């Protein structure tokens, strides 16, 4: 198997090393792992692409490239240039520093990279490590992802639920904020929503008197609806959420016919 790995934390991020380990074990001794990742951190860029600016690509080593762009840019660079003669069988995006459960998935560059792969017709899995009081002070904060990432990816591949729809399926996986030995298992769940937990801004004046705005987040330990991703993560389970790039609110289409 030939696997492409990318992320949104940047090519030097420790989570990418965890992803490399998962991908290497998944690909096997006869497989290949290619890295095409952002040269600098791209957290929160979502599915952004550098449509109006060129991207510089730097070869860092064998099958290892840094791209001055977003995770989606990295996937495009890999599929249409770097790996055009040897396309990947699978894209792994992550392992992200922090969770991409609930509304975080909408902003996530990690999820954006997997989404772009799916739009290009390539199987893809986004991987993120939830942080919390039980794991943020561990020597290896990636312990849950490192210990359970390979089996989780294999289980998704074995299920073979990608389908052939125009908007292809990709999977959003979040490892719970607990040590590896305390992971209780996997749950296939929907995306949740943290109420009253959205992003905001905080103004600040610079020493020169210029006004700047910092984007602010919120605590990530508030549960979502029962049986959704962040809910099971906080209960110690790995969440596996199937996603599509189709943004249509299908449940509203029929009622909307009243305006025709």
Ordered list of secondary-structure elements with their pairings:
Blueprint: E1 2-6, H1 14-27, E2 32-38, E3 57-61, E4 64-67, H2 71-82, E5 90-97, H3 104-107, H4 109-119, E6 124-129, H5 143-159, E7 170-175, E8 185-188, E9 200-205, E10 211-216, H6 229-234, E11 237-243, H7 250-256
Parallel strand pairs: 1-2, 1-5, 2-4, 5-6, 6-7, 8-11
Antiparallel strand pairs: 3-4, 7-11, 9-10
Subcellular location: Cytoplasm
Binding site for a divalent metal cation: 8-9, 43, 96
Cofactor: a divalent metal cation
Describe this entry's structure for a reader.
Its EC number is 3.1.3.5. It is an enzyme of class 3 (hydrolase). It is found in: Cytoplasm. It is built from seven helices and eleven strands. Strands 3-4-2-1-5-6-7-11-8 form a nine-stranded mixed sheet, sandwiched between helices. The chain has a two-stranded antiparallel sheet with strand order 9-10. It has one domain: Survival protein SurE-like phosphatase/nucleotidase (Stationary-phase Survival Protein Sure Homolog, Chain: A, 3-Layer(aba) Sandwich). The mean pLDDT is about 95. It has about 260 residues and is an alpha/beta fold.
Low-pLDDT windows of residues: none
- Helical content stands at 25-40%
Report the mean per-residue pLDDT as an integer.
Answer: 96
Number of strands: 11
CATH architectural grouping: 3-Layer(aba) Sandwich
- Based on helices, strands and strand pairing, what is the structural class? alpha/beta
Question: How would the global form be characterised?
Answer: globular
* Relative strand content: 15-25%
CATH class: Alpha Beta
Main sheet properties: 9 strands, mixed
Number of domains: 1
User: In which order are the strands of the major sheet placed?
Assistant: 3-4-2-1-5-6-7-11-8
